[in-house]
Design a protein that fits this description.
Number of domains: 2
Number of strands: 0
Bound molecules: heme C
CATH class of the largest domain: Mainly Alpha
Strand content: under 5%
Radius of gyration: 31 Å
Order of helices and strands: HHHHH
Largest sheet: none
Number of helices: 5
CATH topology of the largest domain: Cytochrome Bc1 Complex, Chain D, domain 2
Shape: elongated
Length: 180
């Protein structure tokens, strides 16, 4: 009986041992799987980067001036009220603080010149405003609603044209001189 008990006890100890060993193995496997999963996810996130705000590629596409992506049109094209609002937004958001009262340039480049470093199409200008640009242009995409960005684009595209709302009084004003 005693022997049986002993046997029984050692038997159960062995099963206990085994069960712990199995649990240990399962635990280790789970840990490695998890770690591998995290690592993979981490790599994935790193290769993806943060999701774009506007869906438009940032900056000029290297190597080519021709876009391979569809260029969205300004939904406010030809909308006079939106153009006026664009002018107001330009002042309200203090774009004028860096780009000059009429976009003629200051700490930021002139927006009244024909050359736009990051492209002059509506989509390019939208992208510049939404994503920001490397040399000191903040990104507005998370702060300014899409519609307001399109109104700003409309205003910027109207500069130096007869459609420009509230234009500088004289063509010779400092605002007309490109900043750099
Ligand atoms: C803190 C200063 C600052 C403010 C505020 C600012 N900008 Fe800029 N912006 C810059 C600078 C500097 C650049 C040039 C960036 C570069 O060359 O990489 C720039 C570039 C741009 C460009 C691209 C110009 C090009 O040549 O392609 C556009 C368009 C633009 N800004 C529009 C705006 C609008 C609209 C606002 C307001 C919502 C605004 N910016 C507010 C400093 C500013």
């Amino acid at each position: 009986m005693a022997a049986f008990r002993y046997h029984h006890a050692s038997e159960s100890a062995r099963t206990m041992n085994q069960s712990w060993r199995i649990r240990g193995i399962i635990g280790a496997a789970a840990f490695f799987l998890l770690a591998a999963g995290c690592h993979k996810q981490h790599l994935h996130a790193a290769s993806m980067g943060a999701p774009p705000v506007s869906g438009i590629p940032v900056g000029p596409v290297p190597g080519s001036l021709h876009n391979t992506w569809p260029m969205p049109a300004n939904p406010y094209q030809g909308n006079a009220a939106a153009l006026m609002q664009g002018r107001q937004l330009f002042v309200q958001f203090n774009c004028s603080g860096c780009h000059g009262g009429h976009g003629g340039g200051g700490m930021g480049p002139s927006l009244r010149r024909s050359y736009f470093r990051y492209g002059h199409s509506s989509a390019h200008i939208y992208s510049s405003i939404s994503e920001g640009r490397g040399k000191g242009m903040p990104s507005w995409g998370t702060k300014v609603p899409r519609n307001d960005i399109w109104k700003l684009v409309l205003y910027i595209k109207s500069l130096r044209t007869p459609r420009e709302p509230d234009p500088p009084l004289m063509p010779g004003q400092p605002q007309m001189v490109p900043a750099r």
